[in-house]
Amino acid sequence: MRRIIGGHGDEDTEEHINLTPMLDVVFIMLIFFIVTATFVKEVGLDVNQPDDAPKSEDPNKKSIVVRITNRDRIMIAQRDVDWRSVRANIERLHAENPEAPVVIQPHPDSQTGTMIHVMDSARLAGVFNVSLASN
Q1: Angle between helices 86-96 and 112-124 (to 10 degrees)
Q2: Residues 6+ apart with CB under 8 A from 81
Q3: 3-class SS at 43?
Q4: 64-68: strand order across its sheet
Q5: What predicted TM-score, i.e. pTM, was given to this entire model?
């Protein structure tokens, strides 16, 4: 019987792929991405929404309601008011009821400048409890 030196014989040898180095590389990449990942904290405001339960309101404490229409007309106590006399009207109503807050109801189509003018007028009139409400 002849023997072949360095050749392939009739042996049934199965060749396997060694996956260990590939798994090592995958784990090293995983550790690299975990270590280098930056965890971003989103910047935002915490808003406390009011409770749905209606509050018991004092009938003597009425709000000074200022409505702004879609054409930037200012209405105080169901009267059309010129933008130059907003402060005087708020001062008058504030003198009648010093505890009353000012509630501004701007229309969604109104300009922001009109709302800011009403807020500034209320502050100049001495009312610092100013809030916004939807129409």
Answers
A1: 50
A2: 74, 75, 89
A3: coil
A4: 79-81, 74-76, 64-68, 102-106, 130-132
A5: 0.55
Q: Tell me: the pLDDT tens digits for 30-78?
A: 998 888 887 777 777 777 776 766 555 555 568 899 999 999 999 998 8
Nearest to 99 by CA among 68, 129, 56: 129
Structure tokens given for 7? 């050749």
> How far, in Å, are 1, 68, 123, 129 from residue 55 at the CA level?
107, 26, 26, 18
CA 124 to each of CA 33, 66, 83, 129: distance values in angstroms, whole numbers, following the listed order: 56, 15, 14, 12
- Assigned token pair, 117: 């003018």
